Amino acid sequence: MFSIDELRFASKFPFSATSRQVLKLNGFELNRVPAQVLKKAVLLIVFAQKPHKKAEYEKFFSERQIGSSDLLLTDVQAFPVAKILLSAMNQPEFFDRFADLFARQTFFYLSLESNKETLLGLANEMNSKAHPSSKQGFFAQVALTDFLEANFREDFMKLVNQQLDSGTIFLNRNDFCRFLSELSRERVASSLPVSLENVPKNFVDVSRQLKEQLAFRKRQEFDFKSLGSVDQDAFPPCMAKIYSELLAGQNVNHPGRFNLATFLVAIGMPTDQIVDAFKGAPNFDEKVTRYQVERIAGHGKAKYSPSSCAKMREYELCVANCPVTHPLQFYRNQKQGAKTADAQSASE
Ligand code: SF4
Fold first, then answer.
1. How far apart are CA 83 and CA 91, in angstroms?
2. Is 322 annotated as a binding residue?
3. What is the spatial distance between Cα 291 and Cα 285, in angstroms, rounded to a whole number?
4. From ligand 1's centre to the CA of 316, what distance in Å?
5. Domain assignment of residue 207, yes or no
6. How far apart are CA 282 and CA 113, in angstroms?
7. Do 17 and 41 fall into the same domain?
8. Counting atoms of ligand 1 from 1, which one is nearest the CA of 236?
9. Contact 133, 126 (CB under 8 A)
10. Are 302 and 219 in contact, with CB atoms under 8 Å apart?
């Protein structure tokens, strides 16, 4: 059986080959998943769906490592169960956030790791060949092709800023941890959705309830009415760009139009004004546009919401590197900042 250190490794990095071995050798079966595993899987999904402060992430990750072998095994088993629940929910933005949680978790644990072999071993467990650096002043080296599998968002990690020599990238310790963290994001994201064949009925029921619960929470979080009138100056750069392109009569692609419409609905812009914004678009049809906007608005209960920043990047609609994970979060922060400034100047 597995030692406590192996179980700890598997629970820290549940996408690893060790974790898969733990599941296999412990006879993990979907139709005999204990209630506490299902509960942990739900907790993981719920926690992943909301951005947190750094200290909250750290607390969440640290607490997961305290406990007996049984608790660690519960963690390992919760990962594939969470993936099944997410797949049944079938909301791609949930996949991104789930992958983001594990990228953060990977970076957190690796930064604390004192054993060099653990870092290099994890790379190999994710099918990426990493070796101790043959160059002085670096921690590890990876083949360029492996390095490119990690889709870096930070400019300082992009290829142009790396030490490249004959098809090999040389990384310092911190950048190597970042590389593994981004690789884990890619591995988790690309493993979703999973097949739902032979999934027990109670999983489907739990995922339906969870989906409703998260949709309700999102509606509450994004209740922008309390933020006052719509303010174009508070638009995130991506939405400001699409909005001005439409007003200028440029042809905006479907994801761009859909995301702008869902964004405008979410921040409380009246339907007539949204329809007006689309008037300059080539092939504008007022009846069709109004129908689509009303459908998005869902008669006062917004049925759709704009994509997360991660998804916007995939659509190539992201135009800046804002410190948020969702365009609506940017708008809310701007509006709340403006409100605080107004209140301060009124009291002066
Ligand atoms: S980071 Fe997010 S909010 Fe900022 S431009 Fe990109 S998608 Fe929009």
1. 12
2. yes
3. 10
4. 10
5. yes
6. 56
7. yes
8. 3
9. no
10. yes
Residue nearest to atom 6 of ligand 1 (CA): 318
Strand order in 130-132's β-sheet? 130-132, 140-143, 168-171, 163-165
Q: Which pLDDT value is given to residue 344? A: 55
Phi, psi of 114, deg, nearest 5: -95, -20
Q: Whose CA is nearest to atom 3 of ligand 1?
A: 327
Known binder of ligand: residue 177?
no
Q: Give a yes or no: residue 107 inside a domain.
A: no
In a domain, 133, yes or no: yes
Residue 55, Cβ neighbours under 10 Å: how many?
A: 8
Tokens encoding 176: 């190597």
Domain that holds residue 328: 224-341
Q: Whose CA is nearest to atom 2 of ligand 1?
A: 309
Produce one character per residue of 87-125: b if its CB has 16 or more CB atoms within 10 Å, e if not. bbbeebbbbbbbbbbbbbbbbbbbeebeeeeebbbbbeb
- pTM here is 0.64
Q: How far is the CA of 129 from the centre of ligand 1 (A)?
A: 33
Cα(189)–Cα(183) distance, integer angstroms = 10
- How high is the pLDDT of residue 67? 72
> Which pLDDT score, from 0 to 100, does residue 268 have?
87
**Residue 142 per-residue DSSP state:** E
Closest atom of ligand 1 to 313 CA is: 7
Mention every residue, 6+ apart, whose C-beta is less than 8 A from residue 286: 275, 279
Q: Which residues of the chain have pLDDT under 70?
A: 65-66, 218-226, 299-303, 338-348
Give distance in angstroms: CA of 49 to centre of ligand 1: 17
Q: Which of 311, 322, 325, 335 to mutate to test the pocket of ligand 1 (most atoms within 8 A of CB)?
A: 322
Query: What is the 339 CA–ligand 1 centroid distance (Å)?
Result: 22
CA 234 to chain centre: 23
Protein residues whose CB sits closer than 6 Å to any atom of ligand 1: 236-238, 309, 312, 318-322, 324, 327, 330
Number of domains in the chain: 3
